[in-house]
Structures are given as C-alpha cells and as structure tokens.
Amino acid sequence: MRLLTQxxxxxxxxxxxxxxxxxxxxxxxxxxxxxxRYAATLLSHIPSPTVFAYNTVMRGxxxxxxxxxxxxLLFRILVxxxxxxxxxxxxxxxxxCCSNLAAFQEGRQVHKHAVASGxxxxxxxxxxxxxxxxxxxxxxxxxxxxDEMPERNVVAWxxxxxxxxxxxxxxxxxxxxxxMQRRGVEPDEMTMASVISACAVxxxxxxxxxxxxxxxxxxxxxxxxxxxxxVNMYAKCGCIEKASHIFEALxxxxxxAWSSMIVGFAIHGLGHEALxxxxxxxxxxxxxDHVTLIGVLSxxxxxxxxxEGRKYWSSMVEAGIKxxxxxxxxxxxxxxxxxxxxxAYEFVNQMPVAPNPAIWRTLLVSCKRNKMLEKGKLIAEYLxxxxxxxxxNYILISSMYASVSDWVKMSRVRxxxxxxGVKAVPGCSSIEIDGYVHEFSMxxxxxxxxxxxxxxxxxxxxxxxGAGHEPWIASVLQNMSxxxxxxxxxxxxxxxxxxxxxxxxxxxxxIRVVKNLRVCIDCxxxxxxxxxxxxxxIVVRDRIRFHKFVDGACSCRDIW
Length: 560
Description:
single chain, globular
C-alpha cells in the first residue's frame, strides 16, 4: 500500500498526459484488495469511473467488510446519477450485499432493476436472486425466480434447497433434491450440506443416513460444511453418539462445528459433555460466538447445572460480551428449571432491555409449576399486553388457573381468547418410516392407515389405563365432559405418531418422533408408560429438547 500511494501521488502530480480516469482506475483495482476504504475514497475522485471500477469496489467491500451496506449505496449512486449502466457483476454484487444484511426491500428494488434492464434471465444474476430470497426466507419468491430461469446449474438448485431448509420446509427441500437427481444434475458440497440440514429440521434419520452414504459413494468432498451439517443432523435426529463420533474425527473445527456439537449435547440434556466440549474449544483457541454461548447456557439449564451457569454468565459479562435476548432467556430458563423463581423474576426486572414474551412465558410456566398464582397473574398481564393475539399465552394462563382448580378464571381467559378471535396452533408430529416422513395433526384421521392406527391406540389406551395411569384432564381446556377430555388426550399428535411407529416397526427399532410444540404433561407420562409396557425406546424431539423414554423413565428427569 505504501508503494501504491506513491504511484497514486505520481499520477496526480507528474503524469498530466495520461488519461486520469484510466490511471486512477488501475490504482483502484489494486487498492480494493488491500484497503477498501482507500479504494472507496479514490472512486469518488475519478472523473469518469467505469462500471468496472464500481464493481471492483463493491467486491472489495463484500470480501473485507461484508456487514457494511456500501455496495447498496454505490448501486444507488450508479442508478441515481445515470452513470455507466450496471452489468451482471454489479447486480450479483449488490444482491450478495442484500443477502448478507437481509435487506429485503433493497433487494426487491435490485430485482426490479434486473428485470427492467433485461438481465434477470442471466444465470449469474438469477442465482444471486435465489440466494438473496433464500437468505431473506422468502422462498415463494425464490421459487418463482427459479421456475423462470431459462437455464439452471447446481448452484441454483443448491440455493433453492437451502432456502427451503432454512424456513423449515424440509419436505420441499428433499423433493427438490429428488428432482435434481432425476434431471441428472450432480450435487456439490453446498447442495449436500443444505439437504442434510433439511433432514435435521424434520428429524428424518433414515434419509439423513442415506445422504451420508451418498456423499461417500459419490466421492463428494466431505468438507467442513458437510461434516458440520452431518453433526447437526445426527444430533437433531436423536443420534448424539454418532454426531459426537463425526465431530471428533474432524481434522479441523471452526466455531460453527464446535457450536453444533455443544448445542447438540445441550438439547439432549448432556450438560457435562457440552461443558467439556466448550473447555476443549477454549483450549483450541477458537473464539466462541453467540450461538456457542447460547449452547453453553442451555446445557447448564437442561442439565440442572445452576452454579456452572452462573459462572459462565459472569465470565461472559466480564469479558465484555454484550448478552443478546437469547442469552438472557437461557439464564431465566436456568433459574426457573431450578425453581429459583424469585431470583429469576429479579433477574428479569434488572435486565437493561425489555424482556421478550418468551422470557415472560418461561417465568409463567415456572410460576404455574410452583403454584405461585399471584406472581403468575402479574406475568400474565405483561404477556397479554405484549402479545394480545398469541394463542400460546392464553393456553398457558388457562392451564395455570386449571392447575389450582380455578375454573371460573380459566373460563374467563378462554372466553377472552374466543372474543378476540385467537386460535391455537395445532399440535403436529412427524415420524419417518422407510425413508418417508409421515405427519400427524391433533384429531386428524386423514392418514391412509387411520383405521389401523385407531386400533393400535385403543389397545395402547387399555394397557396404559390397566397400568394405573390417571389422565391429567385439567390440561384439556375445552368445555366438555371428563370422558370427552380423555378421548381428546388420545388424539394428541405425538400419540398418533407413536401408534404408527408401533404399527409399522418392531423392537429393537427406536421410535423417533418430532413435535412442533412442547410435550404436554399427560403425553409425557403416557409415553413413559408405553416405553415400559411395550419394551420400546421412544425418542421425542419437541420444541424445547429431546426426551428419551426407556423402561418407564425419561432422560429429562421430568423437567422440561
């Protein structure tokens, strides 16, 4: 850079015969790879900069300062001042910036410009648009771009698969991968990482295993991205031992790999293993990010490691790391799980930022568990002020009153919910059988094997009742008879999925279920009983964590 600045000075003072714009553009090309701010300043002094000069500075910002919006600002200058028209490289660069910043409105404007300039059909621009919409989780718009592309390469398939995986549309991601195979398009590392991640979302273990074999069979480079996706997939599909084996075999590990393993241990309730892994990460001199620290604090919460959690929190604050809302939520969860409700409440009141609804809900659940009705009422008021249309809040508040048999107040809350037109999110569970993911919703009997599932459920219900289980009908908040409430409990989505698992598999095959909501108390008790009566290992991944049911006991130790 020292030599380059001397050349720059020489051009300005001693080379009047050279075309200034041409000479300064040459200096800018080199400067953009070493000192992007110097290059940006230089661009503003070039009398007639070419679009190539703008593209060079944009790429420099993307490589050296990807979190800055300067490529977007430079594009605005180009358009506003009617400077040399943008080309495909300009559009791809500014779209990459929009992706990095999740700048949706700005990206939409670039898309319109691409259409108006006739460049939207270019493969390079189209792929950049796909990546942008995928990063902004606007998969419908991404799919429209994809369908309109005159030609598609492996990058365009990967971007679309990654977009579906990111928003939880795993079946769509897997469907696109199958379409990719039918068309003879060979997947690359990015494709495999995306589709393996899709398996992690829905807990499709068999398909994830097949993809792992596919990577090895096809000779696809098992790079750090793919390996980390495999660690994440096995952890989120309930095979934490396999995830750990792959992780330990990695020749090098970045922060994403370490974090995936720590979070994996955390959601399985393996607190000590998570903290040991974090200690190894520190010894390896890998700087943790906010995801790592969320994993560490979650591990302490799920493992009941209160003192350790307090220690890591203090270390984080003393190191000058500004806690995010997720970090605060983990600490509140840690204290509430240990029934330190008063301390958790004080912690929330002393937060420098306003607590989000999730934190208040954590406190409310703890108040309900500890029969702290007065404090629960205060928290309920906060929640309904913050989110008056969130069904989960009304259901939690109703169940709190039901837990102390205050049916009048419970009915008032339900009436309030009805008057405001708030509808509960239906419970949905999935189970993978022979490589196909079957989904069940509460009370939905549209499955082709519904008749057989009913028969299995009837038999299971009889055996569970015979084992002495008393249904917790207080968790059913509808206005119906006790008998109807018992029947409603047996239509919960995870019971339908477990019944299907019993119908289609035999021991020692593990029944693996993924649920979109938190497991209710009655379903938790019933699943423990089923695991003992039928001699089956049942793994349920709910919205919070994993539950591993074996011989009448659960790995969560009845705290979740």
